[in-house]
Amino acid sequence: MTRESKISFLFFAPAGIFMIIFLFFPVLLLIKDSFFQIDMMSQDSGTFVGISNYIESIKSDRFLGATSNTLIYVVVAVSAELLLGLFFALLLNTGFKGHSFVRTILLSPLMIAPLVSGLIWKFMLNSQFGIVNKLLYDFNITSSRNAIQWLSDDRTALLSTIIADIWLTTPFMMLVLLAGLQGIPITLYESAKIDGANKIKTFFYITLPSLLPVMVVAILIRTVDAARTFDIVWVLTQGGPANSSEVLSTYMYKTLTRYGEVGESSAMAVLFIILLLLLSSYFLVSMFKANKK
């Protein structure tokens, strides 16, 4: 081993040790627990039950409901964030007067912790004194100030958590896409202008294809992040009412802490990790194909 290799290994060692202790070991323990029926009040290691915990999880209506809500949450939130982020990135990329100030304002939600964001939206969506219902009533959109029970109606509870997530993380999508836009060579636009291409054709034939690899990375990061969301949902609804806003992270948390089902919650977590790995693999393959083209 050369001197440079030894130095590189020494620099990597702390991160490697950290990964082994705080990532790989907990995952292995999680997989092991998923095959056991464990009593949290007992000191023994539990009873081996094979794949029973996995079967019970897949057959559970609550697990399937939480999975469905998670998919809806991810698709709606990430799609809205992508469209809004692209719009604001294109707007800021024009370099209009005062764009730096506007960019700072738009990035401000990104500086707020998800827990704090959830508390802010919990007050704003309150059916009694929330500003959202007040504005809807003032503009004659609703008939009363408590016409919409955002957090206590099973028809709007999940939507409320999605709105809070969109407000919080759209700035991230905007920032990534703006960086991608600024990395597109200006010569491409100059050539298109000489060829007589209008703004619509320039967008679809130059901007969008050049931005595609960046968009895939941004979508991948946000998809994984949105799928494992917990703070916002827990603060706003705790998965209620009647499990209408229950997502996988909150259901796994309840299964472990409220019902004491260590094995079943571990099995659900393993299934969740597999789902995230499959999603990540799909986006990575898509990104590789986009770069190859």
UniProtKB/TrEMBL annotation:
Example GO biological process: transmembrane transport
Family: Belongs to the binding-protein-dependent transport system permease family.
Source species of the chain: Saliterribacillus persicus
Membrane topology per record: Multi-pass membrane protein
This protein's name: Carbohydrate ABC transporter membrane protein 1 (CUT1 family)
GO CC aspect terms: plasma membrane
Ranges where the ABC transmembrane type-1 domain occurs: 67-283
Cellular localisation: Cell membrane
PANTHER family in UniProt: ABC TRANSPORTER PERMEASE PROTEIN, INNER MEMBRANE ABC TRANSPORTER PERMEASE PROTEIN YCJO
Membrane-spanning segments: 7-31, 71-92, 104-124, 157-181, 202-221, 266-285
Key word Cell membrane present: yes
Major site of localization recorded for this protein: membrane
Keywords: Cell membrane, Membrane, Transmembrane, Transmembrane helix, Transport
